[in-house]
Amino acid sequence: VTRMVRALALSTTLLGASSAALAQQTVNITMASSHPTTFLSVGVMAGFFKNEVDRLLREGGNRYRINWKEAYAGTLFKLQDTMEAIRDNIADVGFVGTLWEGDTMPLSNISFMTPFASGDLGLVLRTIDKLVRENPALQKEWVGNNLKYLGATGAETYHVWSKTPIARFEDLKGKRLNAPGAALQWLRGTGAVGVDGGLPTYYTNVQTGVTEGAVSFYTGIFPIRLHEVAPHVAEVDIGAQMFGAVAMTLDRFNKLPKDVQAAFERAGAAYTGEIVKEISARIESSRKAMLDAGTKTVRFSDADRLKWAQSLPDIAGEWVKATEAKGVPARQLLQEYMQELRRGGAKPARDWDK
Fold first, then answer.
1. Digit-coded pLDDT (tens) for 242-288
2. Does the CA dihedral 125-231-301-195 come out positive or negative?
3. What is the Cα–Cα distance from 233 to 214, expressed in whole angstroms?
């Protein structure tokens, strides 16, 4: 009898384990990016974000398991196709670079239209994340492009890397500088010539003489080694930026089980905090590594920084006028954004909403 009881118990245990295994569903997800994982926004997506989704599903009852297929560094789509690739479900989830989507996602470029507003990345990302979730027009911009916004990413404040020194505002005149998409606006009125591009293109552009440097940020420049060919840094503090987000194809997201949807949403919200944490921890180490490699830095004086800010045309006003002509309420968003920054302690060098 004892043997029969044991055999029955073992059989029941095995049957239970088998049933549990059968109950777990596998969800296939393709995650991709035009950038490599050395680009921090993608690295945190491929590491922290993915692991957070898996952890949340395990702790939520382990009913679902993600079978991840990953493709980075442009193997599925190129630099300026990040939005279209997710929108059209070439990949299910990935880094969407809104800074290249000035026409299709103008409101998401709000920070690029307000340079010299705040160098505090945490404040900028928290503010825009809040607006994406609360401002109907900004939310519609994502949904209207078949995108499920999950979590914002961005970069610490921008500076200028160059082959020859730029020590003051007047030194910008005649320089050909790479800048990404919407950031080209920051060079208007400075005498510099903006050349559109992204981090993967900067090194070759400077090396081959297409440009003489780039407007960028420490944690983006260090992995691509631009300081090797553009060893001079003008620390201008143009401002921290939200330049994109982790997003999912909305149609795909809507078809996922509710528990999986919740895991992606929670992981996306946590992703933004992790980006700020990782970037903050790496700024000084990236800067030090460049200095050790022979990079020379000069900090722009307050007067030269203010001169740059005041030399710019009314970027925000032009943007509002052009965007509202398309029926999109940009002025309200601009006012909300600047007010939120000031409430958070920012002291803009230029009040773009006034």
1. 999 999 999 999 999 999 999 999 999 999 999 999 999 999 999 99
2. negative
3. 10
